[in-house]
Known about the structure:
Number of strands: 6
Distance between the termini: 25 Å
Structural class: alpha/beta
Strand content: 15-25%
Strand order of the largest sheet: 1-4-3-2-5-6
Largest sheet: 6 strands, mixed
Number of helices: 7
Helix content: 25-40%
Amino acid sequence: MNPAVARAQHGLARTITREDLANLPIRRYEGKVVVVATPEELEEAQTDLRQESVVGLDTETRPAFRKGESHLPCLVQVATARAVYLFQLRRIETHPTLTELLTDPRITKAGISLKDDLRALKQVFTFTEASMLDLGTVARSGGLGQTGVRNLAGILLGFRIPKGTKTSNWAVRELSPAQITYAATDAWACRELYVRFRGLGLL
């Protein structure tokens, strides 16, 4: 990175250029991923989530390509220290577990642009959120000039998250391996960013 670039708190670069980001090594989540589809997997997710004090949170929505077109979220991704759980929202049996998580004040939910995600999720099921932490807000308060998950991963974690399947159809019944990896990586990166911000004393 250009040594002349403006620095934020703790000597961090305020921004990262597209070129510098492209030169970073690619990282994808390589841990356990559970696409929650059975009662046993739902119970496993509940047990793990209840042990956590912080999770990474993200959602995916089927892309809209026509003016005026919009879709509801299809997927919620939640990263714990041990695994990433993918909840397909067409499976309504997962909604109570997600509601429990989103409303639990003991568990910090860390993500990017959470206000938009929560607004959309409330069109799928009803909840009153608690203990949400928008990492973009943390970044701005720490003097960083970029707030997207990919730029923050580059600045704070030193790796590049590929965009690959962002605009794929998230409404499909069976997610592809590429979609699963992409979705899990974003939630995992949010949790990793939380840990990094905490280590820097910015929380």
